[in-house]
């Protein structure tokens, strides 16, 4: 009997840990299909699965899997309305990406300014 309880506790522990793990936002946006889903969701307040699926050559299952990855990264939220799920963008995690990219934006601005100064000196 103790073995069964230990096994059940291990299974429950693993399920809880899986739920607590959050997918990395960079991993979520690495796929072009998921980036397109983010783009589509940014244009609408909410979108049902059939609307989103209509923009891709893949089926509902593939789009659902991509949405699941986005949900794990907290980029997408959903709610059930009748028999369908409606999805909407949660842009908050994208701030992390924007902050990271802003460093490199400044880097390239500085490089472009240095190049401009060099060209002006040559003239």
What is the secondary structure topology, with strand pairs?
Elements (H helix, E strand, L loop, with lengths): L1 H19 L4 H5 L2 H12 L3 E2 H5 L6 H13 L3 E6 L2 E6 L4 H29 L1
Antiparallel strand pairs: 1-3, 2-3
What is the tally of beta strands? 3
Mean pLDDT across all amino acids? 90
CATH domain topology of the largest domain: Arc Repressor Mutant, subunit A
Distance between the termini: 87 Å
- Give helix and strand order, one letter per element, not per position: HHHEHHEEH
Number of domains: 2
The rough form would be described as flat
Strand order of the largest sheet: 1-3-2
Based on secondary structure, the structural category is mainly alpha
Helix count equals 6
Poorly predicted runs of 5 or more residues: none
Largest beta-sheet characterization: 3 strands, antiparallel
Amount of helix: 55-70%
Binned strand content = 5-15%
Write structural notes for this entry.
- This protein has 123 residues and is mainly alpha-helical.
- The chain has 2 domains: 2-91, Arc Repressor Mutant, subunit A (Orthogonal Bundle), CATH 1.10.10; 93-123.
- 67% of the residues lie in helices and 11% in strands.
- The protein is built from 6 helices and 3 strands.
- It has helices spanning 2-20, 25-29, 32-43, 49-53, 60-72, 94-122; strands at 47-48, 76-81, 84-89.
- It has a 3-stranded antiparallel beta sheet with strand order 1-3-2.
- β2 (76-81) and β3 (84-89) form a beta hairpin.
- The model has no long low-confidence stretch (mean pLDDT 90).
